[in-house]
Amino acid sequence: MEDKIIQFIKRYIDLSDAEADIVRDSSHIESFKKNDILLSEGEYSKNHYFILKGCVRTYYIIDGNEKTTEFYTENQSIVPASMVTKEPSEYFISCLEDCTIAIGSEERDLVLIERIPKLKNLIMKSDIQVRIHNQVMFDNFKSKTPEMRYHFLLDTRPDLFNRVPLHQLATYLGITPVSLSRMRKRISTKR
Amino acid sequence: MEDKIIQFIKRYIDLSDAEADIVRDSSHIESFKKNDILLSEGEYSKNHYFILKGCVRTYYIIDGNEKTTEFYTENQSIVPASMVTKEPSEYFISCLEDCTIAIGSEERDLVLIERIPKLKNLIMKSDIQVRIHNQVMFDNFKSKTPEMRYHFLLDTRPDLFNRVPLHQLATYLGITPVSLSRMRKRISTKR
DNA sequence: TTTATTAATTATCCAAGGTTAAGTTTTATA
DNA sequence: TATAAAACTTAACCTTGGATAATTAATAAA
Fold it and tell me: Coil, helix or strand for B106?
């Protein structure tokens, strides 16, 4: 299980066997049950997460309605904005399934970076990768219709449709659940 | 002029006078004319930019139509995706006004980081700040109507309305120029 | 200053998402 | 297993944005 973390890191930087052992030894892995909340609105986050198994969702509540902002599945990492800004979180993070998650903390990060300084490069590289990916996703979102976004999601993350309730996919796509239902009907009768 | 760069850096990390001098000495400042292109689609970017004066726009072309993705004004920095990915750029970067811009290159960055290692922290911090800001903007975009986005832009970046043609603001807001024109009419007759 | 080009507006028609409410299906739980 | 709760669907009505085309305004170029 810990090897998934090593593999993730090796996508960005080289890691000797000895260094991999250090990372392995310092990883904290926890299990969560479906619907467990990793972080609530208003809380200060001191952890970041790496999904080993399961599916996690980030969302916020506006006018009483949940808006899903992202789904995270195996081998994806979550660094809550709150951890960076030191402000109370605007977002919830909760488990859509039973999950196994590696939890990183600021203190342990400092110790790890002390021992393996090049981990700084990992942070730099992965952050900017995420930044660029988000930018592309945002730009696409702007110029595509909801139906195009639906098809794009089907193409790129088909697994979500088996793991996630439709009303959460709807707000993720920037539309209402009612509208998504109607759209699916429209698409299915089209062919 | 160079001091704007120093001030920007000091928002993220401390810098001694000696270090500030090093940064100042190694900065390359260039002037550009309105409509000058800093980067074209298909090109490989080896530079990043810090706007000292003027306004710069990033956009891409899809189905023959320009889609503006961001406006950058004084004291904002641009790190093109292409510079990170080493892939040809999907985006154009062009000057909306006569501009004064500090240009950073990969080679000079390496030398600078060699001399001032803590600049790595600057990169880490500013990257993640941008990432989080983009995430919030994206989430807001999804849950707001075009009209709400228009008002939000008016509130947060009123200067753009004096510097940028409306049809470019329109695609930035994710709508067509025709639609923006109609919306403005609707808003003005509402009160 | 005239002319050409580009930007912005306006109108018409259409497609599609938002809202609300009712009904159905599925899932969870007592 | 029966009951309650949650998820999903469907329908009706309304609003608003997209597409197209024509017109006017503003800007740039000859």
Answer: helix
Cβ–Cβ under 8 Å, residues A57 and A68: yes
Q: Which chain A positions have a beta carbon within 8 Å of B60's beta carbon?
A: 139
Taking the Cβ of residue B81 and every Cβ of chain A, the question of whether any pair is shorter than 8 Å is answered with yes
What residue of B is the nearest CA neighbor of A66? B143
Other C-beta atoms lying within 10 Å of the C-beta of residue A164: 19
Which nucleotides in chain D lie closer than 7 A to a protein CB? 7-12, 16-21
Shortest distance between the Cα of B178 and any Cα of chain A, in A, equals 15
Task: For the full predicted model, state whether its pTM sits above 0.85.
Answer: yes
State which residues form the domain around B111.
Answer: 2-117
3-state secondary structure of A174: coil
Q: Is residue A89 part of a domain?
A: yes
* Assigned domain for B40 exists: yes
CA-based nearest distance A55→chain B, Å: 20
CA B163 to C1' C17, whole Å: 33
A16: exposed, middle or buried (Cβ count in 10 Å: 0-12, 13-18, 19+): exposed
Chain B residue with Cα closest to A68? B139
User: DSSP readout, B19-71?
Assistant: HHHHHHHT-EEEEE-TT-EEE-TTPPP-EEEEEEES-EEEEEEETTEEEEEEE
pLDDT 10s digit of each residue in chain B, 191 long?
778 999 999 999 999 999 999 999 999 999 999 999 999 999 999 999 999 999 999 999 999 899 999 999 999 999 999 999 999 999 999 999 999 999 999 999 999 999 999 998 898 889 889 999 999 999 999 999 999 999 999 999 999 999 999 999 999 999 999 999 999 999 998 75
Nucleotide nearest to A186 (CA to C1'): C16
Test mutation, A66, A127, A176, chain B, max B CBs within 10 A: A127
Q: What is the CATH number of the domain that holds B56?
A: 2.60.120.10
Residue B52 domain flag = yes
Does a structural domain hold residue B122? no
| Number of domain units in chain B | 1
From the CA of A18, how many Å to the C1' of D15? 63
Shortest CA to C1' contact from A148: nucleotide: C16
